[in-house]
Amino acid sequence: MALRGALLLFGMLLFINCASQQAPPKKRPAKKDVAKDTAVEELQKQIDNIVQELNILKEQQALQTVCLKGVKITGKCFLADALNKRYHTASEDCNALGGILSTPSSADENARLTEYVRQSVGLDAQIWLGINDMAAEGRWTNQTGLSVAYNNWDASNQRSPQPDGGRVQNCAALSTAAGGKWFDENCREEKPSVCQFNIV
Ligand SMILES: *[C@@H]1O[C@H](CO)[C@@H](O)[C@H](O)[C@H]1NC(C)=O
Ligand SMILES: [Ca+2]
């Protein structure tokens, strides 16, 4: 923060200095002035780059803080919200933090998310996932609106493998009791959730 301020001030001073020296308009810019303009532009570019890098650092630091409370898994940071909420509320609350509802994209990630939910929420918990078929029945999409490539639906009940809720159940939930298997549930049910942040 102090660095950024100092740099901006430095840049501004240079700019003012340059502008005041140019105050009486000259008919033809001298070679010296052109060189100065280029130098100022170059400096401005460098300042912009530093500001950009600082912002990325700040974001990473914020993520680190989230990850200190949560858990880091393959470029993602998971943070549990143990409060029971409807799907939409859970999703909006997570979005407000800059994340999306957790969306495991591999068996390994699903297993590690399940383990984290066991530890943070409970051994018999169901959490909302960032996956639903609200837009088109039977087409399960993630928060990007794309069909999910990975799923882990529970098929242990052969007569009625998940998802089995049709139009009544459009939101996917992961169950720790079922070893991380997924179930479609009514989106108005209230469940805990895990917010996912992508680490840049
Ligand atoms: C959604 O799914 C697509 C394709 O499977 C994938 O490329 C994208 O990263 C996913 N988005 C999220 C937020 O998981
Ligand atoms: Ca459905």
Description:
The protein is α+β, with helices and mostly antiparallel strands and 200 residues long. The chain has a domain at 70-198: Mannose-Binding Protein A, Chain A (Roll), CATH 3.10.100.10. The protein is 42% helix and 20% strand. The protein is built from 4 helices and 7 strands; from the N terminus they run H-H-E-E-H-E-H-E-E-E-E. The protein has helices at residues 2-21, 31-69, 87-96, 107-120; strands at 71-73, 76-85, 100-101, 126-132, 171-175, 181-185, 191-198. A 4-stranded antiparallel beta sheet has the order 1-2-7-3, sandwiched between helices. Strands 4-5-6 form a 3-stranded antiparallel beta sheet. The longest helix is centred in the first third of the chain and has 39 residues, at 31-69. The radius of gyration is 26 Å and the shape is elongated. Residues 13-20 have low confidence and may be disordered. Residues 100, 103, 142-144, 146, 148-149 line the site of 2-acetamido-2-deoxy-beta-D-glucopyranose.
Summarize the structure.
With 200 residues, the chain is of the alpha+beta class. Helices cover 42% and strands 20% of the residues.
Main sheet: which strands, in order across? 1-2-7-3
* Largest sheet geometry: 4 strands, antiparallel
Helix content: 40-55%
CATH class of the domain at 70-198: Alpha Beta
β content, as a range?
Answer: 15-25%
Outline, from the CA principal axes?
elongated
